[in-house]
Amino acid sequence: MMKKYFVLFLMFCFGIILSQKSKIDLKSIEKNLENNKSNFHYEKLIFKYQGLPKSLDSIEAQHLYYGRNFQKTISTTDEEFRKLTNAFRAKEVDQCLTLGKELYKKDPTNLDILLILLRGYEIKKDISNFSHHMNQLRLLSDTIKSSGDGKSEKTAYVVNSVGDEYILLNILNIRQDYTRRSQATKNAMFDIWEKGEEKLYIKVLYTGF
C-alpha cells in the first residue's frame, strides 16, 4: 500500500490536534460551494488552496475536503490513476511526478495523489514543491482529525473514502493488530476498529448521497 511509505513521517508531522471539533453540514457545504457570491465558493477556495494553503481557515478547509463529494474527482478505478499507482510501486519517480502533476490539476485535494507527489519530491530533494504539498496535506488531514474524536459513533472521525480512512489510521498509528467490523447507516458506513477494550469509530461517507 502506498500509505506505508508515509506512516512515520505523517505521525511526526501531524501529531494530535487540539482544536475544537466542528459539525459537518454537508448540505450547507454543497450550497456554499455552488454560490459564487459565497466566501466558500469552490473556485475561491481552490485558488487559495493551490496558491497559499496556509491562508485557509478550518471552515474553508472543511468545505474543500468534504466538498469533494460534490465535485468531479479522480476514482481509484480510473485508468490514469492505476497508471500512477503502478509507477509508484515500480519506483519510477519521474513518471510518478509527471502523472501525479497531471492528476493533481484535475483533483487537487486527492490525498493519494498528494502522497505520491510528496514521495517523488522527497526523493528529488525538491524542498519547495515538497513543502507546498505538505502544507496542503496537513490542511486536509487536520480537517479530518477535527471532524470528531473517534470515541463513539456520534463523535466518529468522518472521511470521504476508504482510502482516506487508511491514511487516517496511519496518522493515528492504528496497526494491523486492530480488527474491523462495519455497520451500514443512511449515506455512510461506520467502521469500528477494535483492540481489546479500545475502539475507534470512523464514518465513511457514501458518494452521491
Give a description of the structure.
By secondary structure, the protein is α+β, with helices and mostly antiparallel strands. It has two domains: 2-13 and 23-145, no CATH class; 157-205. The chain contains nine helices and four strands; from the N terminus they run ααααααααβαβββ. Strand 2 (179-185) and strand 3 form a beta hairpin. Helix 5 (79-89) packs antiparallel against helix 6 (93-106) and helix 7 (111-124) runs antiparallel to helix 8.
Brief overview, please?
The protein is α+β, with helices and mostly antiparallel strands and 209 residues long.
Could you tell me the number of beta strands? 4
Largest sheet: 4 strands, mixed
Distance between the termini: 28 Å
Briefly note the structural class of the backbone.
alpha+beta
Write the layout of secondary structure elements.
Elements: H1 7-14, H2 26-34, H3 42-51, H4 58-66, H5 79-89, H6 93-106, H7 111-124, H8 127-145, E1 157-159, H9 162-171, E2 179-185, E3 188-195, E4 198-205
Parallel strand pairs: 1-4
Antiparallel strand pairs: 2-3, 3-4
Key descriptive features of the protein:
2 domains; 4-stranded mixed β-sheet; alpha+beta; globular; 4 strands; 209 residues
